Amino acid sequence: MSSSGRRPTIADVAREAGVSTSTASVVFSGKVNVADATRERVLAAAAALGYTGPDPRAASLRTGRSGIVGVVLGGDLRHAFLDPVTTVVMDGLIDALADASAGLLLLRDDPRENEAPPVAEAPVDAVVLIGCSARARTAMEIVLQRGLPVVVIEGDAGEGVPQVTLDNREASAEIAGHLFRLGHTKVATITLALDAERARIPLTPERVANGTVDVALDRLAGFREVYPDGPGVSAAGSLVDEGILSARMLLADADGALRADRPTAIVAQSDLLAVGAVRAAEELGLQVPEDLSIVGFDGISADGIGSLKLTTIAQPALAKGRAAGEQISRMLAGESADSVHFRCVFQPGETTAPPPA
What 3-state DSSP class applies to 278? Predict the structure, then answer.
């Protein structure tokens, strides 16, 4: 702080160092090389005055930009970051936005009662929506009204909005087909949350018809291609504990006794749910895969199931995040953006086997 109590400026530094303001600016921008002696003189003057760099608020006023990209996540942030897939997607997004020198602002898609979604007033230059549920679609409408660049990761954003998509339906059908080829006929599924209510309840035709989360519905549709009448439970989120509770509903009655009509295999819509299902089976005295086969979806490093390697189908989460960041960077630079599609890869493991005789 200068002796007058105000924040020192680049002009003050230039005056102290005996150089032009443009030369002092170049030293801090790093965009043009200057002589070492000049650089050292400018940095010494800055240190003496307590100048730490350009005021970002001033830069924002000049450019009309905040330097921030908003990321809209569904539900509680604490739950979102318990999911390794979300973390990896965010890593990819940050990597891709590094060259644009953009920071991230995390936003929830569920406003408090009688309030607009947080994205309505957030000081952001662009927005990435992860998923496109009913509430996320409201956020999308607001973003488009604001005229902000936007990319959607795994959600139907409508015509003209760049999307990063995954072959959720085809991948789910592939992993279910693996069980079918092993000979399983009694197969159930544990889905991700189907809507904003995030209730853990059995699947019914009405519940599926009223579902709003595209990822969960697409994966369910893939499962139903192979097992049209397969029962299931919609979990409250992609959490190990939800996998435990949901699997118990499929395997045991209210008294904890194994159901006579229990499935011989479970298709979980995430690896975390699959880990929970493995634990639930073991708690009920079932061996995996001898008594019960379990498959997941994501391809994360699944801990908590001992030495077993989970049979799953892997998605390129890091590449998804990078693709979204690259398209945002292009739009911020005034270029057009494209939609990008990714495919999953079957990852064999040790949690599936033919059904018990």
Answer: helix
Beta strands of the chain (E only): which ranges? 68-73, 103-108, 126-130, 150-153, 163-166, 187-191, 201-202, 232-234, 265-268, 293-295, 312-314, 340-342, 345-347
Burial (CB < 10 A; 0-12, 13-18, 19+), residue 87, is: middle
Q: Which pTM value belongs to this model?
A: 0.80
- Rounded-to-integer distance, Cα 191 and Cα 201, Å: 10
**H runs (alpha helix) in 166-261:** 168-182, 205-209, 214-226, 240-251
DSSP annotation of 18: T
Looking only at the bridges linking them, the beta strands covering 312-314 and 345-347 are: antiparallel
pLDDT tens sequence across 242-285: 999 999 999 999 888 999 999 999 999 999 999 999 999 999 99
Regarding whether 224 and 172 lie in a shared domain, the answer is: yes
Structural domain includes residue 3: no
Kindly state whether residues 77 and 155 are assigned to the same domain: yes
Give the span between the Cα atoms of 235 and 200, in whole angstroms.
5
For residue 71, which phi and psi values (nearest 5 degrees)? -120, 115
Which residue range forms the structural domain that includes residue 242?
Answer: 168-316
Helix (H) or strand (E) run with residue 54 in it: none
d(CA 57, CA 310): 49
